[in-house]
Amino acid sequence: MAARPMSPALTLLAAALLAAAPALPARAEAPTVAAAFERMVAGDYAAARALAEPLAEAGDRDAQHLLGYLEEKGLGGPKNLERALDLYFRAASAGSADAQFALGELAFYGDGVKQDSARAAQWYALAADNGHPPAQVRLGLLLMSGDGLARDPVRAADLFEAAAEAGEAAGRFYLGAAYLSGDGRRQDFRKAKEHLLVAAGQGHPEAQFDLALILGGDLAGPPDPAGAARWMRAAAEAGLPEAAVAYGLLIHDGRAGETDDSPADWFERAAEAGDPQGRFLYAVALAEGDGRARDPVAALQWVDRALLGAAEMSPELRASAEALRARLAAEISGRSDLRP
């Protein structure tokens, strides 16, 4: 059975445990948290539980956090959120930033417990004070929005910066966004570009998208069309629907450089991901036979799906979608009228 994706907290724990772990000895030794973690990563959850259980009972906070994660997710045994909460709380009380973060996540998302942003902020703050980069980002976002505590964009940006300095791509992205918007930092497009470039290089899709937009204009220096296309494609390939739409439009306008791709290829990606603009543009491609065989019936189906997200559309886009729908419906109805 393949291992499920790990939480940010477990990713941090992995780095600490595996860096500290000695080479495996030839003879059997007492179980360690590192050994339990290795079994979990390998997908052997029952073995991970067996190794972590006695360590957790002995008061090892890292083992308590790891076992809490297994209990929370139902890995290697039935899901037991009550026990997961108890293990997380014991580990958090002993100073585990990973467990403090985990409790913050449960409170924020209301996963099996009452949703409580204020309580989440308290746990995130404890973990952030312990130098936990994902917690610094989460607490920064709550401070930016004023969700669960008073809005404080300057402190939020400080937290993003601390996370960024620790190598957290999300922290670098949100710090760049603060410079871009002027919320929490004095607006500075060049600094925004610098931070977004770092986060984009770390594989952060939203940073890649925003960087592409900056490079496509002259806010932070001369336009760089090639760089804009390169980063927009990276964001699109990472699965960001709005980036797929934007990259398709770059191809359509001849601003994507040499490529064998059709705009419709990228509009279809965005459409399949549920993006209303992507669905509309893919409907246009099918209606016009642009990059796809002309298919009015399929085009009508896609424009109908686009209009399901009408609330997310601009008035102009919605009007265009409704006009296309009326034209396609009339065409299809006319064809039906000609049948014997």
Short description:
This protein is about 70% helix and about 0% strand. By secondary structure, the chain is an all-alpha fold. Keywords: Signal.
Strand and helix order: HHHHHHHHHHHHHHHHHH
Strand content: under 5%
Q: What profile does the largest beta sheet have?
A: none
- Tell how many strands the DSSP assignment holds: 0
Percent range for helical residues?
A: 55-70%
Low confidence ranges: 1-6, 15-28
Q: Could you say what the CATH architecture of the largest domain is?
A: Alpha Horseshoe
Text of the CATH class of the largest domain: Mainly Alpha
Indicate the overall shape: globular
At CATH level 3, the topology of the largest domain is Serine Threonine Protein Phosphatase 5, Tetratricopeptide repeat
Structural class: mainly alpha
CATH superfamily of the largest domain: Tetratricopeptide repeat domain
Structural domain count: 3
Distance between the termini: 58 Å
Average predicted confidence as pLDDT: 91
**Count of helices?**
18
Radius of gyration: 25 Å
